């Protein structure tokens, strides 16, 4: 298997958009659309567009035989993403009405729950492994490669977010030297939803 930049002409963008969608909080998924099929179409548009937090220029894949996508990493340094670029990309992907109805809610939720990214941070936005290839060390492989990318960017720390109920991921990241430095949550119909913000100092 190889770790490489996403190639929109070689790699299966349907698979990539599915893996991104699966990693998002249920409420944050509303950022992309009302149902999974529509959401994945919108994510795919964002991947194609580039220059946004889900653009092809921010995605690496773990590729197997015949460029089959086994896993993905969406990541970027703190000075690579601008709110204005994201807003333009989401507007173009969804149209203004859909954007106003859904994206603003999702963006507000994301800002409330996600880690605060400083300019010298390297943020791991989405890490996902295809269900048929889990428990084969691919997640660990992606993490090791993410540290290399962070060092290439001269980042002082690597940060990521973990859903409060994802104990398996929390344990994995702790094994790789991450620690919880903040917890952000909101009450939603009596249920607490949110994220642990984690960091690894380089």
Q: What labels describe this entry?
A:
globular, 202 residues, Aminopeptidase, 7 strands, 7-stranded mixed beta sheet, alpha+beta
Characterize the structure shown.
The chain is an alpha+beta fold. It has a single domain, classed as Aminopeptidase (3-Layer(aba) Sandwich). It has a seven-stranded mixed sheet, with helices on both faces. A hairpin with a 2-residue loop joins strand 6 and strand 7. The longest helix has 18 residues.
**Residue share in helix:** 25-40%
Under CATH, the topology is which?
Aminopeptidase
CATH superfamily: Gcn5-related N-acetyltransferase (GNAT)
DSSP strand count: 7
CATH class: Alpha Beta
The domain tally reads 1
Strand-and-helix sequence, N→C? EHHEEHHEHEHEE
Report on the biggest sheet. 7 strands, mixed
Task: Describe the structure concisely for a colleague.
The protein is α+β, with helices and mostly antiparallel strands. The protein has 6 helices and 7 strands.
Indicate the topology:
Layout: E1 2-5, H1 13-23, H2 36-49, E2 59-63, E3 69-77, H3 83-94, H4 96-113, E4 121-129, H5 138-152, E5 157-163, H6 167-175, E6 179-188, E7 191-201
Parallel strand pairs: 4-5
Antiparallel strand pairs: 1-2, 2-3, 3-4, 5-7, 6-7
Helix pairs in contact: 1-2, 2-3, 3-4
């Amino acid at each position: 298997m190889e770790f490489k930049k996403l190639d929109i002409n070689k790699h299966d963008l349907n698979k990539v958009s599915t893996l991104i969608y699966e990693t998002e909080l249920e409420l944050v998924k509303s950022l992309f659309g009302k149902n999974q099929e529509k959401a994945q179409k919108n994510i795919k548009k964002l991947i194609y567009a580039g220059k946004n937090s889900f653009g092809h220029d921010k995605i690496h894949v773990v590729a197997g035989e015949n460029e089959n996508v086994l896993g993905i990493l969406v990541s970027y340094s703190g000075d690579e993403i601008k709110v204005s670029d994201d807003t333009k990309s989401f507007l173009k992907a969804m149209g203004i009405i859909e954007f106003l109805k859904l994206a603003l809610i999702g963006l507000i939720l994301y800002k409330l729950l996600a880690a605060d990214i400083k300019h010298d941070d390297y943020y791991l936005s989405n890490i996902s492994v295809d269900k048929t290839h889990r428990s084969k060390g691919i997640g660990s492989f992606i993490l090791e490669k993410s540290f290399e990318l962070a060092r290439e960017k001269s980042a002082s720390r690597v940060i990521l977010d973990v859903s409060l109920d994802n104990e398996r991921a929390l344990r994995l990241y702790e094994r790789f030297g991450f620690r919880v430095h903040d917890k952000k949550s909101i009450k939603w119909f009596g249920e607490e939803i949110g994220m642990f913000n984690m960091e690894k100092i380089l």
